[in-house]
Amino acid sequence: MSFRIYNTLTRSVQEFTSLEPGHVRMYTCGPTVYNIAHIGNFRAYVFEDLLRRWLQFKGWRVTQVMNLTDVDDKTIHGSREAGVSLADFTAPFKKAFFEDLRALNIEPAEYYPAATDHIPEMIELISRLMEGGHAYQSEDGSVYFSIDSWPSYGKLARLDRAGMRSGVRIHSDEYDKENVADFALWKAWDEKDGDVAWDSPWGRGRPGWHIECSAMSQKYLGASFDIHTGGVDNIFPHHEDEIAQSEAANGQPLAAFWIHCAHLMVDGQKMSKSRGNFYTLRDVLAKGYTGREVRYELIATHYRAALNFTMASLDAARVSLRRIDEFTERCKAAAGDVAAGDLPVWAQQAAQRFEAAMDDDLNVSAALATLFDTIREGNSALDAKKLTDAEAAALLALFRKWDTALGVLEKPAATVPPEIQALLEQRQAARAAKDWAQSDALRAAMAAQGWLVKDTPKGQVVSPA
RNA sequence: GGCGCGGUAGCCAAGUGGUAAGGCGAGGGUCUGCAAAAUCCUUAUACAUCGGUUCGAUCCCGAUCCGCGCCUCCA
């Protein structure tokens, strides 16, 4: 079965093939490290992780690059306001970003280049654009890309260039530019930039926003690579501008597939910093939810559909995950140390349906439906004692395989503190003596400390409440 | 205004030219010292509106209404 995915460039679902056999090169636009990313941002990173994992599931080796934008208006403004250097200002946000990635079980990319480490590469690229007549320096010293020099400008966003020009000119007071839609490659130093500046052939200044992605993708992935991703809000202008810069400089297509995920919504509106309607992952964890639950919610809706974020859906995610956990634990108990045998026929069919669903533009909802069908079938078979131990082991293996793609099925092991362990042992003794009053008291004591005790045929099970 | 996306049962959410997955919720059974959890079964005459094409449309076409996004920094 082949993997098909929606390409913004062609506005259609296309069969995915890699330029280089067996190897996918993927560039994913990363965070601007001027504050803590919110979970709307993380929807994109979780989506990209799912895409990466599915490519691997299908047998490709993946080289993924995610940039860290650590120099722009916001980072400079923030550092000056805080009275610290740019590097000192962004460092804690970089650290927090990686912590959040781990909490969401996002696989690390191969490269996380920071913009400030690649200024020479950007200058080199801008120089080539200047030489090729695609860029010019304005009176204030800034360098702009000339969209009039690049006829295919607008091909990703499908812009009407004629309409765009006449519409925007009225509102523009940037007379330095030849065309108001021209965008900055290099921004001349300004008082507001403080000590943030680099020398360049065009004087001191700093790079424009888009040039970093062009320079860094080329350095780590080559002039042409397979996949470029981001949120739909990056289609224009960011990705459009990247295409113009890179393709004008290199004369070859930047990326074959442009894949964009839809927004995370809150109360029917896009979650965003500027609207103030956002939650950080930390906010949600502080409410007692886990990174795994957040990942489940973010993953369960198709990546091209807007997803309305609510605590109620996190609760639903929690219950759904518990159902998955109960099933895998039942299978583990049944399988013991038995080697995995063949899957029951219904599970073989489920495996095919799962893969077909994911192959179809990452249809996770359909894949999860298959997974829950499998759980119901499996539970019924276990109830009826119709599942062999070897089949239970095979089902576990199937779930593990599915989880290489989903990254959400495996339950993180909770470490039980010694004092709770001691209470458990006391309670077990009380129960053996049928001292129910004592048993209930101990259960209450553990509940007070945040541990939920369940009595199962195999004994007590504790979990964090 | 330009470009684009969406409106499926109480909520979330797939999907298809021949009367519609799955999850949550709800009801019932089983299990259980109790509890919690789990599990099985059941559940709702759900496809925005109006036309058109068709033997037949929720799925195709057109119009309308509503919601959302991008067009400026934005995942």
CATH level-1 class of the largest domain: Alpha Beta
What is the spatial order of strands in the main beta sheet? 4-3-9-10
Counting DSSP E segments of at least 2 residues, the number of strands comes to 15
Task: Give the N-terminus to C-terminus distance in angstroms.
Answer: 42 Å
The helix/strand order is: EEEHEHHHEEHEEHEHEEEHHEHHHHHHEE
The shape is: elongated
Helix content: 40-55%
Description:
By secondary structure, the protein is α/β, with parallel strands linked by helices. It folds into three domains: 4-270, HUPs (Rossmann fold); 324-406, Anticodon-binding domain of a subclass of class I aminoacyl-tRNA synthetases (Four Helix Bundle (Hemerythrin (Met), subunit A), Up-down Bundle), CATH 1.20.120; 418-464. The chain is built from 15 helices and 15 strands. It has helices at 39-57, 73-82, 86-103, 119-131, 161-169, 209-221, 235-250, 281-286, 291-300, 311-335, 345-359, 364-383, 389-406, 418-432, 436-448; strands at residues 4-7, 12-15, 23-28, 61-66, 135-137, 143-145, 183-188, 205-207, 225-231, 255-261, 264-266, 269-270, 307-308, 451-456, 459-464. The strands form five sheets. The protein has a four-stranded parallel beta sheet with strand order 4-3-9-10, sandwiched between helices. Helix 1 (39-57) links the parallel strand 3 and strand 4 (61-66). It binds one RNA strand of 75 nucleotides through helix 1, helix 5, strand 9, helix 7 and strand 12.
